[in-house]
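User: hey, got a sec? need Benzoate degradation ring-cleavage hydrolase folded
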Amino acid sequence: MFLHEGLGSIAMWKDWPHKLCEQLGFRGLVFSRPGYGGSTPRAADVKWPVDFMQRQAHDVLPALLDVLGIDSAERARMWVIGHSDGGSIALLYAAAFPDALGGVITIAPHVFVEDVSVKAISAATALYEQGDLRARLSRYHADVDSAFYGWNDIWLSSEFRHWNITDLLSSIRCPLLAVQGHDDEYGTMAQIDAIASHLPHAQLAKLPACGHSPPRQCPAVLDAAIGAFVWRVRSTRSSGTNQER
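Assistant: Yep! Here you go:
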């Protein structure tokens, strides 16, 4: 299951999920979260709450899986791959359902708010309102203002500066790979280092010459890191239990 970034959608993934699933031998589930892509837009007067990512992980994802008829046995084998906000949601889902997940790959996740993130999102506001960002994003969202301002307003709110999910990470028991680019303009290595400090079993992949969007900026390096990690997990499970989750 692929969870897109804060301004993402099904279309913005392009063909990366399909190629990765082919490489890994997985089936894939890709969807646009409410407010994004072709999903139900956010009403103009609705503001995302500070805990919007927790609500996605605790309420929206389980409800989606229920509607799709994905049972508990299938969920226990499922891997979640999340990017940026989607990476944070993946972590929150794994923490909330520690015995019901095959593994997590979190790419450029946020576990607390950094000044660099706020600065980059403020710069995105100017590009959206004065540059060509709105036109570029409008190709991927039925209601582009719903997508942009839902993300932008909560991230730049004073209340959100104190958002922090590091104390929840220790509940995660499934295999976990955390990926970060060295040139990420939206976050530093402190994000995935914090994950490792709370989860000794977590594996880290720090990508050189890569920014906030490894699936677009360095897909070959990212795919190699993910492939090696999944292979190690499969090998460990095969040798330990003679079956793969």
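Quick note: The chain is about 45% helix and 10% strand. Let me know if you need anything else on Benzoate degradation ring-cleavage hydrolase.
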